[in-house]
Write a structure and sequence with these properties.
With 217 residues, the protein is α/β, with parallel strands linked by helices. The chain is 28% helix and 25% strand. The strands form 3 sheets. It has a 6-stranded mixed sheet with strand order 1-2-3-4-5-7. A 4-stranded mixed sheet has the order 8-9-10-12, with no helix packed on it. The longest helix has 16 residues.
């Protein structure tokens, strides 16, 4: 694993801290119930107020966006998300970027959805307005990160990945590396995104759930 990547596992949900020049970029933020652990791990990386250059969300689900509003207030970092998932975090309505019935959902994931819905009822997403939206080809060089955004819908309409020049892909829920996990909202979108990724030079995939792995696309 490259030294500039720090994995923060928050109860099975991954956040990634990427070293970016004299600061950091955070990919996803986890559930708000894991906030204390997230803050501790950020402190351990040396990330302080003014050093978090941006928060970029792979999609708007609460297990990835749950700490955004709080972190923006604490660190002063702008939040970016794809326009097709922006309404999720603005309204708290997960259905805004998903079909009424997903095309593929494993039994384990169905159980997880029940659990997360109950958790969301107790700890609703702190809604917020993103500072800006990103789309295919957005260059993160202005944030001192040699990487670009890929629009890879399938899990949600506005799902994105962050691909570094070194071939590291931070893909949110495009892929899982946990047994029994499978959720594809739109199969046609997923297949198109998979075809796109097959044409790219990707060395390591960093999923939203599970350990990093070498792709076999």
């Amino acid at each position: 694993m490259p030294s500039e990547v720090t994995i923060i596992n928050l109860g099975g949900v991954n956040c990634y801290v990427l070293k970016a020049g004299d600061g950091f970029v955070l990919v996803d933020t986890g559930f708000q119930t894991q906030r204390a652990k997230l803050e501790q791990r950020l402190e351990e990386t040396g990330c302080k107020r003014g050093e978090l250059k941006m928060i970029i969300l792979t999609h708007g689900d609460a297990d990835h966006a749950g700490n955004c509003a709080y972190l923006r207030q604490k660190y002063g970092a702008p939040i970016a998300i794809h326009k097709d998932d922006a309404s999720v975090v603005e309204t708290g309505d997960i259905g805004a970027s998903h079909k009424p019935k997903p095309d593929k959902r494993s039994f384990v994931f169905r159980l997880l959805v029940i659990f997360t819905k109950r958790l969301a009822e107790r700890y609703p997403l702190e809604k917020f307005k993103p500072d800006f939206t990103v789309d295919e080809g957005f260059d993160l060089v202005k944030y001192a990160l040699q990487a670009r955004v890929l629009h890879i819908p399938g899990h949600s309409k506005g799902s994105i990945g962050v691909l570094t020049d070194d071939g590291d892909l931070f893909c949110g829920d495009m892929f899982y590396n946990m047994p029994g996990f499978s959720f594809i909202d739109d199969m046609e979108d997923y297949k198109a995104s998979l075809a796109k990724l097959k044409n790219l030079s990707i060395k390591t995939i960093y999923p939203g759930h599970g350990r990093p792995f070498t792709p076999r696309l």
